[in-house]
């Protein structure tokens, strides 16, 4: 279609189209016009994604929503007889229908520049094919493939459009004759979610519930790190270790089970059954919402296209929005590459046999959780931690309680210590550890590296859309979890600290809401709880006392020990305490720290209190059932005002 037919307002730079565009053909107004932005001499100043664009029915190339296209029973193409013929033959032709249901693909003659398609097919054909490819006309990519193959086969010159293609299955594999090309499947959807961890699958589910068509791309198993090799299997094993401990110490209360035996094969099989049940559940959740899962490795090939390498070949998915949720992977130290002797958490969660001794490098939460599990199983555990205490980032008064209990369980903790090198020795390892300027050599059967995790931002095709990560590998996102590239979102571990499953899921819900256009969809949380399943457990939410003071707040602190709680004593878990940090002025709870029994559960009440802006008095005045562990939180809130009835008064 000649440029003149687009209407004068579209040809002037910086001018918004105000009215439906006259086609210039038969004088009809066409409510939906596709404009190839790069093909115009002067880029258009309007944003076709905004409401103005929608109202006027003007869309940039690739951004016409699928709903519009799907509803359109007819589109007309001007200026290219072959394309029109082929498109009609592919089932997109037919009689013109009334009013709004019309779509026009309009391109100026001599157009250039819309990606590789236009390199091969300059002009109208390329632009039209490109548009169709992007917005999801299922049959047209076949035309493109045919035409590309024709060029590859030596026809060259002007593209050869085959005859009628009406009967084609748009989802069939298209690669046929060209030697270089493997099979290529083309599909389109509203949103592609890349990665099916707790961030990605939750986002996909919410998107589907909000009426979006979603394709999930996952290279491994549904559920991501969390369900398969992280939170869930670790907590299953930790609970088994805890049970073992309880059985061993039951003699103290007159119950003697004898020395418990561990059948590792059955234990790991049980753990896997928990994982399988949950990951199977995710599969059902997706299926029940008609969310398609493609198993394969995906990368961005454009802001609105993801290419997936699957076992069967390549799938290209065109879409309007992409959500990147590729998570994170275990980090290690130079020279400590993962293998038979150097485990990551993944190997530690599925051992073939229990090592007699284990050197844990990194005393963060994963190292301490797994280290304690192995210690409970009877493995001799040494923890090498570079900072001056285990669980760095956790308040010292909390981590001290765990360090004490870890030592009781036989774990040796070396702080301010660095693992420098290792070598295999007699079926085990010899590790050089440096502490206080001195080196010593430690022997163990295996090394467990838990020095942190790094975002999985490599090979995601970020360069294809001009995205860069920060130095740590995270993608920067805004309140909607959109990256700097419109329509490309990032959530979960990929989108920054804290790298926690529930933070990723919450981001997934925000991104889904933003994509679906829900008003107010934005990241707006006061606090994210953190939980550590050591023995005893640690949990905290909001600001620590130090953080609150550093932020300039005047605070009052309340505290209550589990040792004075009936329920804690009756379940033989009386170590630890709850600490509440409240604003001295208005009594608002600013932060809560806990160490003790079941605090990973108790922290939910504290998170709710902070999120709801409750005061310490609000919690203190809430009747808590007796005898329960949450009473400790209530008493700590009373103690903020010096009024805990069960606190012993001194002096
Ligand atoms: C041992 C361990 C214990 C943990 N315990 C807890 C805990 O108790 N509580 C907690 O909150 N957090 C815990 N975590 C952290 C938690 O697992 C992560 O924060 C969480 O899984 C992040 O979710 P995500 O969806 O961002 O990424 P992930 O769960 O890592 O999922 C990302 C998915 O994307 C896939 N993927 C990546 N790249 C591609 C690609 N190019 N194409 C296709 N697919 C791709 C991956 O295969 C993966 O399945 C633990 C982690 C570990 C290792």
Structural write-up:
The chain is of the alpha/beta class. The chain folds into 4 domains: 178 residues, no CATH class; 200 residues, 3-Layer(bba) Sandwich (FAD/NAD(P)-binding domain), CATH 3.50.50; 110 residues, FAD/NAD(P)-binding domain (3-Layer(bba) Sandwich), CATH 3.50.50; 110 residues, 2-Layer Sandwich (Enolase-like, domain 1). 31% of the residues lie in helices and 22% in strands. The protein has 20 helices and 30 strands. A 5-stranded parallel β-sheet has the order 10-9-8-14-25, covered by helices on one side. A 5-stranded parallel β-sheet has the order 16-23-17-18-19. The structure holds flavin-adenine dinucleotide. The site of flavin-adenine dinucleotide has 36 residues, from helix 8, strand 9, helix 9, helix 10 and strand 11.
């Amino acid at each position: 279609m000649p440029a003149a037919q687009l209407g004068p307002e579209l040809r002037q730079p910086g001018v918004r189209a105000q009215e439906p565009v006259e086609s210039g053909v038969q004088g009809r107004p066409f409510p939906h016009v596709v404009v190839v932005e790069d093909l115009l001499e002067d880029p258009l100043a309007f944003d076709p994604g905004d409401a103005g664009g929608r109202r006027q029915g003007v869309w940039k190339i690739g951004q016409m929503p699928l709903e519009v296209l799907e509803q359109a029973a007819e589109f007309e193409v001007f200026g290219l007889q072959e394309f029109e013929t082929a498109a009609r033959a592919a089932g997109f032709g037919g009689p013109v229908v009334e009013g709004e249901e019309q779509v026009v693909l309009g391109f100026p003659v001599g157009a250039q520049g819309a990606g590789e398609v236009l390199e091969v097919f300059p002009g109208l054909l390329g632009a039209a094919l490109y548009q169709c490819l992007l917005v999801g006309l299922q049959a047209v990519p076949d035309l493109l493939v045919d035409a590309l193959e024709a060029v590859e086969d030596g026809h060259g010159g002007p593209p050869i459009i085959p005859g009628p293609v009406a009967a084609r299955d748009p989802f069939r594999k298209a690669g046929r004759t060209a030697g270089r090309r493997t099979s290529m499947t083309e599909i389109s959807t509203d949103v592609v979610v890349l990665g099916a961890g707790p961030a990605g699958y939750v986002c996909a589910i919410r998107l589907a519930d909000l009426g979006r068509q979603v394709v999930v791309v996952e290279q491994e198993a549904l559920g991501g790190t969390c369900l398969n090799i992280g939170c869930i299997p670790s907590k299953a094993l930790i609970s088994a270790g805890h049970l073992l401990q309880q059985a061993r110490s039951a003699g103290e209360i007159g119950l003697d089970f004898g020395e418990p035996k561990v059948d590792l094969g059955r234990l790991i099989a049980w753990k896997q059954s928990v994982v399988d049940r949950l990951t199977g559940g995710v599969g059902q959740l997706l299926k029940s919402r008609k969310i398609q899962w493609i198993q394969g490795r995906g990368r961005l090939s454009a802001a609105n296209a993801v290419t997936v390498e699957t076992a069967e070949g390549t799938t290209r998915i065109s879409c309007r929005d992409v959500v990147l949720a590729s998570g994170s992977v275990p980090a290690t130290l130079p020279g400590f590459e993962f293998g038979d002797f150097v485990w990551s958490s993944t190997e530690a969660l599925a051992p073939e046999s229990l090592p007699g001794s284990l050197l844990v490098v990194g005393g963060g939460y994963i190292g301490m959780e797994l280290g304690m599990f192995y210690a409970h199983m009877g493995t001799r555990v040494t923890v090498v931690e570079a900072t001056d205490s285990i669980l760095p980032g956790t308040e010292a008064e909390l981590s001290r309680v765990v360090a004490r209990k870890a030592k009781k369980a036989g774990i040796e903790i070396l702080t301010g210590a660095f693992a420098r090198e290792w070598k295999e020795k007699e079926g085990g390892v010899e590790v050089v550890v440096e502490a206080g300027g001195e080196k010593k050599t430690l022997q163990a059967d295996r090394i467990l590296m838990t020095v942190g995790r790094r975002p999985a931002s490599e090979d995601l095709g970020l360069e294809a859309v001009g995205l860069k990560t920060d130095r740590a590998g995270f993608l920067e996102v805004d309140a909607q979890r959109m990256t700097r590239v419109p329509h490309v979102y990032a959530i979960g571990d990929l989108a920054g600290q804290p790298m926690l499953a529930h933070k990723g899921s919450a981001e997934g819900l925000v991104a889904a809401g933003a994509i679906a256009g829900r008003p107010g969809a934005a990241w707006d949380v006061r606090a994210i709880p953190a939980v550590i399943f050591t023995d005893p457990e640690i949990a905290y939410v909001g600001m620590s006392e130090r953080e609150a003071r550093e932020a300039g707040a005047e605070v009052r602190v309340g505290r209550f020990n589990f040792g004075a709680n009936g329920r804690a004593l009756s379940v033989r878990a009386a170590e630890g305490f709850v600490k509440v940090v409240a604003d001295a002025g208005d009594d608002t709870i600013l932060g809560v720290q806990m160490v003790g029994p079941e605090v990973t559960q108790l922290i939910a009440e504290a998170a709710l209190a902070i999120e709801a802006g409750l005061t310490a008095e609000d919690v203190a005045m809430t009747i808590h059932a007796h005898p329960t562990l949450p009473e400790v939180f209530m008493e700590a809130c009373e103690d903020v005002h010096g009024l805990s009835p069960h606190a012993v008064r001194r002096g």
